[in-house]
């Protein structure tokens, strides 16, 4: 980590980490509505899912990062009024994927805007430290636009998991 708050966080524009999708041992996802209660729903979904998976001491880190990513998606990426015809489709979707030694949480949203970390030096601010927390608690993070006809992007965070034995 760098020492200067303005250079510490660098938004990443890249695909998911180099993990074989065929080797996923567990995966779960849920759609989230465009309201702030969705953060609580995402935390509950994450806790329930992680209770079934062996993530060791990363449990709290993962739950915190999911909360921050979902909050950011709702605050910065979801339009105030949903587009006609999209009312049946949740604007935000949370994905959790576990490999034997890694876990990735991804939050899909309808925006094409690059996630931009704010300067983390202002700790008196009421908000704006979400990506700083993601950077602090995840082993890596990034984002990428959705391919094909899908609209939006996925912001992801990866966690190394303890190995058995």
Automatic annotation (TrEMBL):
Domain of life: Bacteria
CDD domains hit by this protein: HATPase_RsbW-like
All copies of domain Histidine kinase/HSP90-like ATPase, residue ranges: 32-156
InterPro entries reported in the protein's UniProt record: Anti-sigma-factor_SerPK, HATPase_C_sf, HATPase_dom
Keyword Hydrolase: no
Alphabetical UniProt keywords: Kinase, Serine/threonine-protein kinase, Transferase
Ranges that cross the membrane: none
Name the record gives this protein: Histidine kinase-, DNA gyrase B-, and HSP90-like ATPase
